[in-house]
Specification:
five-stranded antiparallel beta sheet; elongated; alpha+beta; 2 domains; about 30% strand; about 40% helix; Jelly Rolls
């Protein structure tokens, strides 16, 4: 959960209790009015800094409108079993299912791989282009070129490519859908397979 959201929720709940107590007291006197006024100043500050509004109805009753996101970040994990050492897996349909499940209409999604020898990119899932990308990146950082890390587990080329391509992508969510272009797909890149991998999708 977003720390500021947590803080603001706790804070305005306390403010609500104090304000309700002072406004419902029939023996309202000067000190209580001062205190209530001070609370209203706090309400203003809460609204400015935390985007949480405190409304009053009929002078005494209150309802609180929290303009912060209604839900904490939504997180799901996608499991992928790769079949070869170098491979691209189109995970767009899986990510779309997570977006639909989250019910977020307007927001942002992040696809993240928590592995050091995989990467995520967005591009066209056309077999010729996929083969071109895999061939070019393997030429860019060939396997077994005397890398220091190869003394441990012979996969330095995969680590280097993972760092160059990157472990995540971020996509806007518009009208409940990932705003990908017509020819764009979310592609998971295996650089040291075959292995069981997991990919996180977080939606805010
Ligand atoms: Zn390694």
């Amino acid at each position: 959960m977003n720390p500021s959201y947590k803080l603001s929720t706790a804070f305005f709940c306390q403010a609500k209790e104090r304000l309700l107590a002072s406004l419902s007291d029939t023996r309202l006197h000067y000190t209580r009015i001062i205190r209530a006024s001070r609370e209203l100043c706090w309400e203003f500050l809460i609204f400015v800094f935390f985007n949480v509004r405190v409304h009053r109805i009929g002078g005494k009753d209150l309802f609180l409108q929290d303009n912060s996101p209604a839900m904490p970040p939504f997180l799901e994990t996608i499991a992928v079993k790769t079949k070869s050492s170098f491979e691209m897996v189109n995970i767009t349909s899986h990510v779309n299912k997570v977006v639909a499940k989250s019910k977020v209409n307007q927001g942002n999604l992040m696809v993240f791989t928590p592995h050091t020898t995989t990467a995520i990119t967005i591009n066209e899932d056309e077999p010729g282009l996929v083969a071109d990308i895999l061939r070019k990146i393997s030429e860019l950082v060939p396997k077994g070129e005397g890398y220091s890390h190869d003394r441990i587990d012979s996969n330095a080329h995969a680590h280097i490519l993972a760092s160059i391509i990157g472990p995540s992508v971020s996509i806007p969510i518009i009208k409940g859908k990932a705003a990908l272009g017509t020819w764009q797909s979310i592609l998971f890149i295996e650089l040291d397979g075959p292995r069981n991998r997991r990919i996180m999708v977080q939606i805010v």
